[in-house]
Write a structure and sequence with these properties.
Radius of gyration: 18 Å
CATH architecture of one domain: 3-Layer(aba) Sandwich
CATH class of one domain: Alpha Beta
Largest sheet: 4 strands, antiparallel
Helix content: 25-40%
CATH superfamily of one domain: NADH Oxidase
Number of helices: 9
Strand order of the largest sheet: 1-2-4-3
Order of helices and strands: HHHEHHEHEHEHH
Length: 209
C-alpha cells in the first residue's frame, strides 16, 4: 500500500474544528530507510523544551540515537525496548527514550506532575514532527532496568517511554497483525464519554448539545 494512501486513511475527520496536525498525527510502525535530518530532530526537541511544566521544573530528559549517525548508540537504545517493540522499531532511523525527574530540584519534594509534564513535552515533540512530515510512535513497552543500567540513570529519575521516529514506510514490511493495524482507520471515543459535568460519569451538557 502506498504511504500516501495510508496517510489519507489515517487522517481523520474530527467532530469539531481543530488544528490539522491533530487530524493527521498517528503512530506508525512501518518506517522508511531514510535518515531524519539533524535540524528536524533539534526542532522536535526544541518544541519539547518550551512545553509548560509545574513550577517550570522541566522534569523531562531524553536519550536520542540515530542509526545512521551512530549505529552503536542506536543498538544500545534499541536494547532498552521490550522484545515486541524491538521487532519493528529497529526500522526507525531515530530512537528516543524519555525520562522524568521525580522530585523538585529546589526542595527535593515529590513532583506528582512530572509524568504529566514529560508526556506534554513528548506530545509537543510529536506535533512538531507531524508539522515536518516526520512520524513518532511512543511506546510504553520498555525495559526500565535495562535503561537504568545502560545509561546509569540517577535514582530520582524514572524511565518513561520509548519513541520511534522517522519517515513513513510501507506497511508491507510488517507482519500481518501489525499491517492490519497500520492500514485501519483511526477511532476515538466521543466527548460525552470522558467530559463530565455535575457528577462523575455524567456528561457535561455543553458537549452533548
Amino acid at each position: 500500500m502506498e504511504t500516501s494512501s495510508v496517510q489519507d486513511l489515517k487522517t481523520t475527520t474530527p467532530a469539531h474544528d481543530i488544528l490539522d496536525l491533530f487530524a493527521e498525527r498517528w503512530s506508525p510502525r512501518a518506517f522508511a530507510d531514510r535518515p531524519v535530518e539533524p535540524e528536524k530532530i533539534r526542532r522536535m526537541l526544541e518544541a519539547a523544551r518550551w512545553t509548560m511544566s509545574s513550577y517550570n521544573e522541566q522534569p523531562w530528559r531524553y536519550v536520542v540515537a540515530s542509526r545512521h549517525e551512530d549505529p552503536e548508540a542506536y543498538e544500545r537504545l534499541l536494547g532498552c525496548l521490550n522484545e515486541g517493540n524491538q521487532e519493528w522499531a529497529q526500522n526507525a532511523p531515530v530512537l528516543m527514550m524519555s525520562f522524568y525527574k521525580e522530585t523538585f530540584s529546589e526542595n527535593d519534594q515529590p513532583n506528582r506532575c512530572a509524568p504529566h509534564d514529560v508526556g506534554a513535552a513528548s506530545a509537543a515533540l510529536t506535533f512538531q514532527a507531524t508539522a515536518m512530515d516526520v512520524y513518532v510512535h511512543q511506546m510504553a513497552g520498555i525495559q526500565k532496568d535495562v535503561a537504568r543500567e545502560t545509561y546509569d540513570v540517577p535514582d530520582d529519575f524514572e524511565p518513561m517511554a520509548g519513541l520511534a521516529v522517522g519517515y513513513l514506510g510501507n506497511p508491507d514490511m510488517l507482519d500481518e497483525g501489525k499491517r492490519t493495524a497500520e492500514t485501519s482507520p483511526r477511532s476515538r471515543t466521543s466527548l460525552d464519554a470522558f467530559v463530565f459535568g455535575d457528577g462523575w460519569g455524567d456528561s457535561a451538557s455543553f458537549v452533548t448539545e
